[in-house]
């Protein structure tokens, strides 16, 4: 079997990472969650600079970038990697709504993207990789062997995210999540540098009315057809 590169892009909370993780496991590939990388950078500058909507100083953020070290460490038991920010496992903390609220603004900075895209290209250079994000099929691996673009209705996505965060014990309202999903969609699709869009050669999968198993089956079939 030849090793291929699989790019999975789409809006927030479409379930990209769940499917991507499972697919990588099945194929014995590396899984890279690029959203986790943008989230970890955001967490770092939030801690250092108390970044908020009104306290957002691009210059200071950029000055901190050289001090950020990101790494995925594979966890045998989980079957996938977890993200480490300067040697600290931040997998849980980066999923908090506080981080989701600021991540799209930090991700829009070209210097941040440049730094992370470089790392992502390096991680996928030997192929045998499933990478999910917003710009994988358009910018990181424009020559990916398989590109999938996941979509679902805004309400469905907010509902899923709400359930997920409730299960983790975060105390937030559905409306707050819906608002965050809409806001991130808007910022991610309208930013100047690498906006979220479907690559011309990507296959669109609308999973509004699909179960996880159905999505997974569909994606595995698409991948196996290419290998
Ligand atoms: O995938 P996830 O929802 O965790 O991504 C969080 C945020 O990181 C996105 O809303 C987007 O602003 C940013 N992101 C990005 N490019 C990627 C992956 C994520 O700009 N490749």
Automatic annotation (TrEMBL):
Source organism superkingdom: Bacteria
Pfam families: Cytidylate_kin
Enzyme class: transferase
InterPro entries the record matches: Cytidylate_kin (IPR003136), Cytidylate_kinase_dom (IPR011994), P-loop_NTPase (IPR027417)
Enzyme Commission number, as recorded: 2.7.4.25
Annotated compartments: Cytoplasm
Keywords: ATP-binding, Cytoplasm, Kinase, Nucleotide-binding, Transferase
Single GO term (MF): kinase activity
Similarity comment text for this entry: Belongs to the cytidylate kinase family. Type 1 subfamily.
Taxonomic source organism: Salegentibacter chungangensis
Keyword field contains ATP-binding: yes
Alphabetical list of HAMAP family matching this protein: Cytidyl_kinase_type1
PANTHER family from the UniProt entry: CYTIDYLATE KINASE, CYTIDYLATE KINASE/PANTOATE-BETA-ALANINE LIGASE
Primary localisation category: cytoplasm
Residues that span the membrane, as ranges: none
Catalytic reactions on record: CMP + ATP = CDP + ADP; dCMP + ATP = dCDP + ADP
Domain Cytidylate kinase per the UniProt entry, residue ranges: 6-224
Ligand binding (ATP): 10-18
Name of the protein this chain belongs to: Cytidylate kinase
């Amino acid at each position: 079997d030849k090793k291929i590169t699989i790019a999975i892009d789409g809006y927030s909370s479409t379930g990209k990472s769940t499917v991507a993780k499972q697919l990588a496991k099945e194929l014995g590939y590396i899984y890279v969650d690029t959203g986790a990388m943008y989230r970890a950078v955001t967490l770092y500058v939030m801690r250092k600079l108390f970044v908020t909507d009104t306290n957002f100083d691009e210059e200071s953020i950029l000055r901190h970038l050289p001090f950020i070290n990101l790494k995925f460490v594979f966890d045998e038991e989980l079957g996938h990697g977890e993200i480490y920010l300067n040697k600290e496992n931040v997998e849980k903390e980066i999923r908090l709504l506080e981080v989701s609220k600021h991540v799209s603004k930090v991700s829009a900075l070209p210097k941040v993207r440049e730094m992370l895209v470089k790392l992502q290209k390096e991680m996928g250079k030997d192929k045998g990789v499933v990478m999910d994000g917003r710009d994988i099929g358009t910018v990181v691996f424009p020559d990916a062997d398989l590109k999938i673009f996941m979509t679902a209705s805004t309400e469905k996505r907010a509902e899923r995210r709400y359930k997920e965060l409730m299960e983790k014990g975060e105390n937030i309202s559905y409306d707050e999540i819906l608002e965050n999903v809409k806001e991130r969609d808007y910022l991610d699709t309208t930013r100047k540098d690498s906006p979220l869009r479907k690559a011309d050669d990507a296959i669109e999968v609308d999973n509004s009315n699909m179960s996880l198993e159905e999505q997974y089956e569909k994606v595995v079939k698409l991948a196996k057809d290419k290998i």
